[in-house]
Amino acid sequence: MTFEEILHQYKEVYYRFPQSLKTFLGSVYGSIPLSIRFGKHYSIHETLLREFEAADTQFQLDFIYNKTLETLLFAEQHIPYYQKRFREYGLSAKDFKSPEDIAQFPTLHKEDIKTHIANLHSNVAETPVAYYSGGSLSTPTQYFLPASSRAKEKAYNNYIFSQIGYRYRDRALLSRGREIFKPHRNTYWEYEPVDNYLYLCSSYMNSDIFPKIYTKALKFKPKFFIGYPSAVLSFMKQSKKHHLTAIPLEGIILASETLYQEELRTLQEYFDTKVLTHYGHTERSAIAYRINDESYRFLASYGLVRIVNEEIITTSFDNFVMPFINYQTADHATGTVTYYPQSSVVKGVTHIEGRIQDFLVTKDHRLISITAMTSATTTSKKGHFVADDIHAVQYIQSEPGKVTVLLEGTPSNPNAIAEKMTTLLQGGIDFDLNIVERIDKTPRGKRVICKQSLDIERFRHTTASLT
Predict the structure, then answer these.
(1) Which of 242, 376, 459, 465 has the fewest CB atoms within 10 Å, i.e. is most exposed?
(2) Which of 451, 257, 253 has its CA nearest to residue 354?
(3) Domain total for the chain?
(4) 404 assigned to some structural domain
């Protein structure tokens, strides 16, 4: 095991150390090169990634083919679930002759994972590490990944962040992941010396405590702000509310939540800097990014990506514990899709709108994208959901044609918002708006934009977007 794998098991103990001890130990550990901390896998992936990005198209296609074949062979030899499914389809890894052939193989859905998890992983090559996702609305889905996947993820994220000038351990504000507030100590931030982050508490961003959070952030002199879109937006809105100037930044890095177009424009205008939006998921089978309002760019050396009926379908590379083959991510992609020549392998896409569950169902069973709702529903020049007097929004649906909308904040004219939404959908949905003091987030601080109880898969063959 690498240093990182061993120490990661004791991170909760480290978090409980006094700050002075954490600063000393974390600074020493953070100064150790990543190739030593994460071991050989970090160096391997960093080198392969840079070689892939610099190579010509034929090299890249050959690389994608060989990595996909490697995944199929491992699944066929070691994973009982895939052995059974391949037999049912009358296929084997030897039938994979080009990247296009992946479409012949069976798909994998989240429900398949929940049902067959015992037969979907193996420990013959690496030690399985359990991960969970999707627990904000329902029972979390369990996955197993190799311990080395953290090294791969670190190498790719560092490369992606470097596209807007970030260098590992640059001073950065961080507002995502674990919550660090200690109200009894009047502390709403925490310095993390390993990566040189100043954690900011997202739970108290929309409170009277904010000026103290802002002052601490300003004194830290960050180059970058890394966080959930909702957290960075809250920081911006509270800065404006308290008449505080924008903290100078070289860039903003956003991840883990859908970023809506009006939100992106607002952040760009306020901070006057580049905004990098990162796409990835717990399963670690696809990764992409965009800068400002450019299209998303998938890093094809990370995993094979296809888009079928606007859903992102992935096949993992380098996962010799629980490979994902034709995995239905339930993430929705729209707009122009670019492909490798004469191939269905995706290089980029205009928009990634997040989970397929983030749709509303009309009375006549059409699907309405919340992204389209947020972009099109305006009361002025800007979308009302990025207005300074609205901190958060959440849609709740359990019946077609009826949606409860929770608004956190003090909107000046909620009736006008409801009327605009109803008019936009031509009466297809009856909206019930409620002003609430607080909309709960997930334990890791992520916003839940939609609590959708309906089975969206049932409605997917009907109209799926606004015009």
Answers:
(1) 242
(2) 257
(3) 1
(4) yes
